[in-house]
Amino acid sequence: MRLTPANAADRKVLVTEVGTRDGFQAEPAFIPTPTKVEILDALIDAGVASFEATSFVSPRAVPQMADAVQVMAQVERRKGVRLQALVPNARGAEAAAAARVDMMVCFVSASESHNQTNLNKPIGASLENVAEVAAIGRAAGIPLRGAVATAFGCPFEGEVPIESVLRIVEAYAGLGVRHISLGDTTGMATPRLVDAGVAAIRSRFPELEIALHFHNTRGIGLANVLAGLELGIREFESSIGGIGGCPFAPGATGNICTEDLVYLLHECGFETGIDLERAIRVARRVEEVVGHPLPGQVMRAGPRLRHHAVESVRRAVG
Ligand code: ZN
Asked: Averaged over 178-193, what is the pLDDT?
């Protein structure tokens, strides 16, 4: 068990907030740009140091992300805070480079049918897009992060063979990518699959930094985080309030929740640099913004040692 950090360096976990991208993208009503910026700034104030802030996709494909340029221009840029953006193709990469994102994120699905449904092209064609993005990023001095979607299972194909994941990772590595993110797009990961996936990538590509992106669709998102921690993974992606959804499971919860993740990490002795109480306040604000309840749990119950006034509790027994 490596759940107790070995030393100070081992104690640091990077939480990458994806709520304003992965989460907001699932919201049907357009969230005004100043509100998106307000949420990002509040999270930066709460100590979040890494974001997938927005996406430079075609506004026709994803209207919610139509203001990527404005969001990047208006959000507070602070030293030590990494603002990543999703970039699907060369056009997006040019815009992301002009907007001075700190890191571009490309994503390709490990499952052919999911890639076809999600990106409307075969995996091979997506990898060609990634090569174009990588070239633009290299010229602009912006690193590229390679995300693998449906890395732990596909809603159309079921089990995703590890070889399919390795094929994408190999393509990324060949383009100079050093950061890989394994995405559990529809919440099909289990601790055993996390073990197997991470081990397979490490044995072939020991030089790569691996981050894990879980969805809580089936309620074991944080169990998968524990599996990752035991393997020494020190970066996880999550969304504030657990905002997000799953297009293939209506009503299902989305990403693992940032405050719940931070609570778990802190209680295990890890450091995130995030102020949990402030993160909870942002989660409540996001709930207000989207106008429906979010699945986060610590935002309702509070941290375990939050004191409650005795007088505030109705007596159960006379
Ligand atoms: Zn996701």
From this structure: 96
